[in-house]
Amino acid sequence: MLPPLDPEMFDPLCPSGLMPMRIGDKWAALIIRCLEQGPRRFSELRVPLRGISAKVLTASLRALERDGLVSRTVVAGPAQHVEYGLTALGRSMIEPIDAICAWAEEHWDELLDARESGARPS
């Protein structure tokens, strides 16, 4: 059994929200991060992704599944449930996401300054 996901995993003050690059949709990289340690149930994903609606999480998971990054498994038993996990292709995204996160941390102050000043691209 995996430990529960940290509810503060994607704290609004964390650089994850400042990443200017998106993989798939706004939530894809964050979902991949949540699945990094192993398969999770839908309700587990909602804990750190507290800003996402059930409808949008469902759509994002379906898109990631369609793209071959996430697998959906129905787990039989007395309390049948569904788990989402990374495929080998999905796992291959962890290293690029790590690099993007490191870049965002390195440029945290610059990103904040640009957003606060309302800078517009030229």
Note down, in words, how this protein is organized.
There is one protein chain. The chain is of the alpha+beta class and 122 residues long. The protein is built from 6 helices and 3 strands; from the N terminus they run αβααββααα. Helix content is 43%, strand content 11%. Strands 1-3-2 form a 3-stranded antiparallel sheet. β2 and β3 (81-86) form a beta hairpin. The longest helix is centred in the middle third of the chain and has 13 residues, at 54-66. It is elongated, with a radius of gyration of 16 Å. The model has no long low-confidence stretch (mean pLDDT 85). This is Transcriptional regulator. InterPro entries: HTH_HxlR (IPR002577), WH-like_DNA-bd_sf (IPR036388), WH_DNA-bd_sf (IPR036390).
Unreliable sequence segments: none
Q: Give me the count of strands.
A: 3
Tally of domains: 1
CATH superfamily: Winged helix-like DNA-binding domain superfamily/Winged helix DNA-binding domain
Distance between the amino and carboxyl termini: 50 Å
Helicity, as a percent range = 40-55%
Q: How many helices?
A: 6
CATH fold descriptor:
Arc Repressor Mutant, subunit A
| CATH top-level class | Mainly Alpha
CATH architecture type: Orthogonal Bundle
Return the string of H and E elements: HEHHEEHHH
Shape: elongated
- How many whole angstroms does the radius of gyration measure? 16 Å
Protein name: Transcriptional regulator
Pfam families: HxlR
InterPro entries: HTH_HxlR, WH-like_DNA-bd_sf, WH_DNA-bd_sf
Domain HTH hxlR-type: 14-112
